[in-house]
Amino acid sequence: MKVATKKVKSLDKTKSKKTVIKKKQQSEEIPKLAKAVKKAKPSKVEKQPKKKTAKKSHKQDLEGIKDIDPEFYDFLKKNDKELLDFNLMDSDDDDEEDDKQQKEATVADDSEEDEAKYHKPSNDLAVASDESDFEGEDDDEETIAAGGQQKITLNMLRQWQLQLEKPNVPIEAVRQVIQAFNSALASISADAEGEQANAAAYKVVGAATFNGVIQLCVLHLQPAIVQVLGVKPNSSLPLHKHKKWVKVRGCLRYYLGDLIRLIEQVSSSNILTVLLKHLHQMAGMVAPFTALGKTILKRLIVLWATGDETVRVLAFLCILKITRKQQATMLNHVLKAMYLAYVRNSKFVSPNTLPGINFMRRSLVEMFALDLNVSYQHAFLYIRQLAIHLRNAVILKKKDSFQAVYNWQFINSLRLWADLLGASANKPQLQPLIYPLVTITIGVIRLIPTAQYFPLRFHCLQSLISLSKETHTYVPVLPLIVEVLRSNTFNRKHTSVSMKPLQFTCILRLNKSQLAENGFRDEVVEQVCGLLLEYLAYQSSTLAFSDLVVPVVMALKAYLKECRNANYVRKLKQLLDKIQESSRFIEQQRSKSNVTFDLKDAQAVQAWEQQVRNKRTPLDIYYASWLKTHETKKRRQAAQTDDINADYDIPKLKRPAAKTGVPMRNEDGELELFPSDSEDDGAGLPTDDDDDSEVEQPQPKKSKRKQENQEAKKQPEEVAPVEPADEYDDAGTAVDIVKDLDLNDW
């Protein structure tokens, strides 16, 4: 406090000096007096004590002013007497003071030297108390912050809510609420950066106030803006065409920018759901802002591709609504960004990611269907890129070129365009792309026609069958299905027994150990029967069905003669019987109706096929019953996705060596129950001559104590299911900024 009072004293002296100089300037008679006074003034801080000679010269200068201008000297004497007596008293005692200061300097600390730098103030100065910082502040009333910011209270929020709920909403209330929303986000940004946001109009303090501001905007802002614009209930006029749009345009632009910034920073799916619903309500107001609309759509596409299930759906609805409001300017940008996001996020397919990929594909087909003329340009360009990758693989025949084709991104792209062409089958814009897409898909199947890539073959065949059914176009897929039965790898006996059935849903390529399992052969037969049944059931009502199935019937009969597995024989024999029965049915319908029309008459052929389709063929009836059973099986498998190994390498038990009878152990000496199932493994696997899917191996008898010891050893080997960790924990740095928001209050 001593230092503070000394500074106050020094400031008072400085102020008096300025007054003196100003008076001197007004007096034009003595211009040299200012220099004299300036020289006479001592400096603020003197590091060393002044000498007696300097003090005497200073006093002589002041006495000279008395002789030169007595009137000015009298003026100084009356108004600033301290200047004349400045540090000139008791000059005889200066030497003693200097000696005293020198002695103290050798003993005292640096703090005492700093105190000697400043002049001592008088004792009559008032000292401010610490309690003055809180004077005039009341927590229950509206206060003004240090930077002129008004502190938002819950009472203010209630008053704003009442104003927004009025029939005639004042425009000023809307602007204040938007400013409060901006201040809330500014307070969060300032807290994150360790700084304080002084540019905001209001100051938001506390989680309750922050949540109240967000809640007020989400629930009441959009209806209030509609009331301000005077929008009628059934009006089709765009919002930016109303007369009062100019009044809300500026503040609404800032609000939408702040809203998308908040959506970027939120990680909780529940809060994202609420904010996206609010953005969906505000989607009609984004149309006039082209640059802002692109920013919003860019963030929404990220959520559409990577968010949770509910977040994905809401993000897509927002994208669809915003794009349709400004389709002419935004559709090209949105289609390109969404396709790239789809390809980027379909690189890895697993039971967990497959539903999201399927949703992206279906929703992207819907976006392309908005304008087929624009979609043709994108589809032609991307299908051409697929063709270029395939051509490079055929010509170069290198590993990198093969990998550019045989991956999930390529297969998912083929699925997307097949679904799009099938969805737009009744419109002519995209029909010219059917032939190149079918050619590319068949080329992918023929690129590496080995048993290792049978899963990829089946995925491509499924796309071709769906495309053929939707577009009513004949695609020659039957030879590609039947030739699987003639594969040497498939007809070879299995050398290992798989514990779980092998599924091709999330697999493109099989390793050597999987090719040796009986589950591989079971799944191949299941896929062959399913694809043949699906395709032939659709073609069973065509006029040329009897001629179409001749190669298939011959191939199935040839395989049944060589097959020794009773399960395979039973399935294929039942399918063969239904095919032959449907073939006889079509021949009977031909003879009954006395087909006399020309085959070139497309309308007559379609009318005849429609009559047969209404009667339903035996193969069609059989396929309907099989489909119900198959869908039930798929739903059961989907419910068990948590139990499926992430690597899709089904673990298998290895029998111990016959000589020792000791269980196999790894390099660390631990019991190895489920060894690695890589491609290098399998060369030394035991051979089973039986074709049954489950084979019980004889186990040596063991005592009860040994069994308990082995069970105790097995427990550490079991891997507990990994629970998904929270994205942001309490101790982390990236904590959700609206984590305290309670949705139940909404």
Automatic annotation (TrEMBL):
PANTHER family: NUCLEOLAR COMPLEX 2 AND RAD4-RELATED, NUCLEOLAR COMPLEX PROTEIN 2 HOMOLOG. One of its GO terms (biological process) is ribosomal large subunit biogenesis. Residues 90-99, 677-695 have a biased composition (Acidic residues). It holds the Pfam family Noc2. It is found in: Nucleus. Its main location: nucleus. Keywords: Nucleus. Residues 1-63, 87-124, 655-746 are annotated as: Disordered. Belongs to the NOC2 family. GO terms for molecular function: histone binding; transcription corepressor activity. Residues 15-24, 49-58 have a biased composition (Basic residues). One of its GO terms (cellular component) is nucleolus. This is Uncharacterized protein. Residues 706-717, 737-746 have a biased composition (Basic and acidic residues). Signal peptide: none annotated.
